[in-house]
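Blinded run. Sample ID left blank on purpose so nobody reads anything into the name before looking at the predicted structure. Input follows.
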Amino acid sequence: CGDLIFVFLNVLAVKVPQLDIAHFSVSQEGGYPEYFQYLKWSLIVLLLFCISFKRRSLLYFSWIAVFLYFLIDDSFAVHETIGQFLSKRLAFTPPFGLRGQDIGELMVYGVAGIFLLFPLISAYVFGSQTFKRFSHDVFLFLLAIIFFGVFIDVLHIALILGPKLDFAFSIFEDGGEMLVASFI
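Blinded prediction complete.
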């Protein structure tokens, strides 16, 4: 419900700019929705710790690492900062109308994904049936996060859109990512 309220307030802020509630925008850095997202990542990590202790299994720490990365990346703009650094250091022409920073950010996601995937695969191979079922479910949500946070983001940047479509893409991308985190 909180996500939907923030999306509604975002639309309201655009439609009625006199309200001066831009800090409720789901796309604004440092806005209330962003802090709400930090809270959700933190709660997911905390709940995974509880599951790990309840089940007496360290395998859940592979998932804790994934969501802890999301929390750290979101709160400290890791992929943006390193992506910008890489774009300045590497000489390349980005394809599809993307910026150098976008390619740098995708590189950061790729490297982080590789480092996070190995413990997940190992945990899955050696895990119980309960852990494997849990991982199936969480992995589907992870794919949804990647869909909204990476694919839709890149598509949004690559397409030249008018203001209305640009706004719709922003809501779809950021709102979708927020909803998936809530479902997790």
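Unblinding after everyone has recorded impressions. DSSP finds seven helices and no strands in the chain.
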